[in-house]
Amino acid sequence: MHKITKKLFCYFTVLLFFFGATAFTGFQAALTYYTYQNHERELKERAGTIGSRLETFLQGHTPRQGRGAYLWFVDDIAMADAYLVDADGEAFSYGRNAFALNTPTEEAKQFAAQVFASGSYEHFRRKEGRETVFYAGMPVKAAGKVAAAVILIDTAQPEKSGMLAAVVILGICMAAALALSALLSACLSRRFVKPIQQIAGTAKELAGGNYLASTDVHDQTELGELAAELDDLAQKLEAARQESSRLEQMQKDYISNISHELRTPVTVIRSLLEAVCDGVVTGEKAVEYERQVLLESISLQRLINDMLELTRLQNKDFPIEKADIDLLCVLEDAIRAVRVLAAEKSIRILFEKPKSEWLMQGDYGRLRQMFVAALDNAIKYSAAGKQILVSAKIDTSHASISVCDHGCGIPQEEVSHIFERFYRSGNNHEKGSGLGLTIMKSIGERHEIDVSLQSTYHEGTTVTFRLSREQFCQKPERYPKMS
Q1: What is the value of pTM for the model shown?
Q2: Mind listing the pLDDT tens digit for each residue in 404-442?
Q3: Sequence-ordered list of residues with C-beta below 8 angstroms from that of 49, at least 6 positions apart, any chain
């Protein structure tokens, strides 16, 4: 038997006994109350009948010869101890022969005094051992005055046989209910235990690393909610595992790419320098080798700088120097900086500049670096002879700057990962560390600028910089010098 079955059986048993005890107590109390009330009513009716008969006798409306006989058998008529008491507390006598009923006891005399005092029906009861003694007193009136009091005294108690039968019946019902509760608890426990076992099994699978496990529990109770939460947890753990695997693979790919990027210029530099040092090349050839060594050194330095730059930007404790600047001036400076690169591919950069100034607090150099990265990518991935559109727009709540090119674009499934660290698009055949967009995104975050990218494969890409107008401030006294 399952533990939950035992618990359910115990619960049902306790509840059954509690119900049985409550029902038995209530039944006994109700039976006793009904018995007492019924007995008191019967005594009142008998006392009233005897009193009415005596009043008739006193008024002389009945034959004299029948009155003595009536009084003689009044105990039998009352079916109880009957006393007829006068105002002096003595047995009431009636007729020529002064026939009197039973001699009243002291209790009967005291109770008769209450009846004379009230002039109406009186009754009470008291416990005497295991029995209950009932008293009923009815006044007998003649000529408007109480001439006597009929006192009936009787004992009564609930039928023991009836109580015993009730206990037997109740015991049989409780035994039957207990048997049914055992069967019901077994059925209910099976229903409860099965989903719990499924949930427990799924939890073990999750603990073992199988995040594809499912409870397969469909229930409208709290167990169903628990199973649904566990299934949702399993899905999230599986998604986290896949994401972790993807990031781990990206990191491995990044390390591999960085290693290749580092190894290539170092190898080239070493080969060129060995050739120069060994005298293999001389004259103009040696000068060309030295120039190539310089280019490879610059490339190597750029790669290392990108790695250090990203580390600094993603460290929230690393401060950036903010000052009053005009964001549009920063953008114009970035456009001037890349025009030479654009001219090499006959690419035109069109700038739609608003007339207003966009004054804000920011790091001039970092923001310029952010815009240059976006423009550099646009030039790098645009075909020769194309044009790049840079536009700045502002409305009542936000301002935005967009850089739109007509290059090769990015596949849609890669757009959501393009800003992630270590990520390089499979469509990217250009040299680089793959950190440019990540650095650009980080600079935007440090300035509360939302950087987003929309792209259509083989059609072009648009990078958008969006910020709130609340970031704009009053006109600065001076602008930083543009480099």
Answers
A1: 0.44
A2: 998 888 887 777 767 765 556 655 555 555 677 888 888
A3: 77
